[in-house]
Amino acid sequence: MRRISVLLTALVLTLAFTLASGEPASNARLKTSDGRLKKGSRGPDRNGWIQVHLEGSPSEIGFQHGYLLASEIQDSFTDISIEMQHDEKRDWSFFRAAARNVFWPHVEQEYRDELAGIAAGLKARGVALDLWDVVALNAWLELPYYDRIADDEAAPTAPADHCSAFVATGSYTRDGQIVIGHNSWTSYASGERWNVIFEIVPARGRRIIMDGMPGLIHSGDDFGINAAGLVITETTISGFKGFDLQGVPEFVRARKAMQYAASIDDFARIMEDGNNGGYANTWLVADSRTNEIASLELGLKNVTLERTHDGFFVGSNFPSSPKLVREETDFDTTDRARGENTRHERWLTLMAEYKGQIDVAAGQKFLADHGDSFDGTSQPSERTLCGHVDLSPRGMGSWQNPYAPAGTVQNKVTDAAGARKMSLVAAMGHACGLDFKASDYLAEHSRYGWYSPILRDMPSREWTWFEAR
User: Fold this and answer.
1) Domain C-terminal end among 106, 122, 150
2) Is residue 26 assigned to a domain?
3) CA 163 and chain centroid, separation
4) Cα separation of 308 and 288, whole Å?
5) Dihedrals φ, ψ of 233, to 5°?
6) CA 157: distance to chain centroid?
């Protein structure tokens, strides 16, 4: 019954969109005479990435976003709604209600205007999604944290871990300046849709270049550069428990920090202010002006900020603070076979091996790495920095199901010179070069047949440079 319900949801959403627009959004004629679109533009797709430029007031930026990416937002929404309903065992109405009653009251006006603008842009293109669908889409990464406290029986397990990341400076890098990199881990269904390079020029705050998913006002996997020279990324804290109903949504704080922070101190302050515990992360930050780097482990009760001008920080979903581990997670730091711990060991090995040689090229190698620190092999799995849960015979981290269609979905790296030009190099798919073929996978793993309406091929693409104009 669950699978039938999910498939019907996808059919209803597609039908509603077709009836509202009369044609798919990809073929709908753009009403470019609308003044709100004047400063926004969509560039050519490059190696799987969509480029958009958004500029103006919050409502204008939102409208441009919704209008220029209408078909992609509809597609991402269909994917996320199916995955969320399956994983959380909830109807979409639950997430809409949470968006309206739990998250919206704590969204400040600037971002309310932008979210409403996205909904308006979608409406102008005939897409049958409203404001609460857009808010729920933005909150989808932290909704499972809320769900755990809303009904423990309905959501008994922690959200799956995401991402591998590093930042280094001083004696660890080739030129003594910052280098930072990140790969995003998620389901291949959502990951293949996490393919937008946003350039945002807000009326207030700083210009941003960041990767993201259609419809999100924040990056989501949080790799971005702002005009103050800050580079920001993160990895999720595995096994985290806790959510403050009165807190500010993570998607608001993450976007605000990207837009307004001028220093590491600014970033930490914004992220801590009103922290709701949703989508709890260890944040890695680099200041390309001073070559200082930092790690902000942001629990709900326990917060640790470390910083240095000579060293490195790494992330692979492991919690560091013993107090945070004890009070806010169910994470086992002693299990060396667990993917988060194995990847942590591998990061430490690579940082030592490449000390004094880390640059963008080295970062690209790191994100393609298949070294397994637990068994000494070099083959793709959930225990490797380039993650392949689909090739793992059992859950080795927070991914509890064997051979799930999940793992690394895209990659980004930059250095100080790149950050000062607001540029980054990015690659869709596995950086190691392995492709994912949906039809072959589904034929072999019938238990994941519910993915069939949304799972598609994920080829490995070339690394591509992007720069804010």
Assistant:
1) 150
2) yes
3) 9
4) 13
5) -150, 180
6) 20
Residues 135, 231, single domain; the answer is: no
Sign, Cα dihedral of 422, 136, 164, 283: positive
According to the model, what pLDDT value does residue 469 have? 81
Q: Reduce the DSSP state of residue 334 to 3 states and report it.
A: coil
Q: Same structural domain for residues 66 and 198?
A: no
- Adjacent-strand bridge partners of 381: none
Distance CA 441, CA 297 (A): 36
Q: Name the strand (E) or helix (H) holding 234.
A: strand 230-236
Within this chain, do residues 228 and 375 fall inside the same structural domain, yes or no?
yes
pTM, entire model? 0.92
First to last CA, the chain: 50
132 and 264 housed in the same domain: no
Domain of residue 95, residue span: 2-35+58-150
Confidence bin at 402 (pLDDT 50/70/90) = confident
Question: Based on the domain organization, do 185 and 309 belong to the same domain?
Answer: yes
- For 429, left (φ over 0), alpha (ψ -120 to 50), or beta? left
Rg (CA), the chain: 21
pLDDT digits (tens, 9 = 90+) for 29-42: 455 689 999 999 99
Task: Report the DSSP beta bridge partners of residue 335.
Answer: none
Alpha carbon distance 100, 132 (integer Å): 6
CA–CA separation, 455 and 106 (whole Å): 34
Mean pLDDT across the chain, nearest whole number? 91
pLDDT in tens, 221-232: 999 999 999 999
Specify the residue for token string 């070294």.
371
How many folded domains does the chain comprise? 2
Instruction: Specify if 156 maps to a domain.
Output: no
Question: Would 100 be classed as within a structural domain?
Answer: yes
Provide the CATH number for the domain around residue 126.
1.10.439
The CATH number for 424's domain is: 3.60.60.20
Measured CA distances, 419 to 219, 286, 366 (Å): 17, 9, 19
In angstroms, rounded to a whole number, what is the distance separating the alpha carbons of residues 1 and 97?
Answer: 23
Q: Measure the CA dihedral 390/318/170/198, to 10°.
A: 60
Q: Which long-range contacts (CB under 8 A, 24 or more apart) does 40-43 make?
A: 40/64, 40/65, 40/67, 40/68, 41/68, 42/68, 42/69
Q: Does residue 310 share a domain with residue 431?
A: yes
Residue type, 144: P
> Looking at the structure, do residues 216 and 193 belong to the same domain, yes or no?
yes
Total Cβ atoms within 10 A of residue 204? 9
Q: Is 203 within the bounds of a domain? A: yes
Domain identity same for 176 and 139: no
Task: Please give the DSSP secondary-structure letter assigned to residue 47.
Answer: T
